[in-house]
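Order emerges. As here.
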Amino acid sequence: MNYWLCVTNEENWKVIKERKVWGVSKRNKRSIERVKPGDLLVFYVMPQRIMGIFKATSEPFESTEGIFSWGEFGREEVFPHRVKLEPVVIAEEPIYFKDLIPRLRFIRNKKMWTGYLRRAMRTIPREDYNLIYTAISRGG
């Protein structure tokens, strides 16, 4: 099983919760192709909030249905490479990412932490997943 940190915007977070699907651009196809059913996806919603965790329930697939948005960036992209999801835990209140940085192993350079979030998704260690899960479960 792998643990993933997925970066999205507020508008697409609503789509993820309602439609139970995560999608990435063609540029990030190789990352999502590594997702397997049972993998756990932590959602980082810009700016600087952890909002929930979902479990992948499908193999990656392709769809051109226009459900996602670039939000404030205004570019056209359908994020065609997708996986189906089921919720594990949704934060009642946002978990502020900056509060977790000192304890997250995958962020080695704590001062330059934003560089670790420049991709749509990345694997994270199990220990980091557990830390985030606990923070959401406790409400911060």
User: Anything to note?
Assistant: The mean pLDDT is 93. The first strand starts at residue 3 and ends at 8.
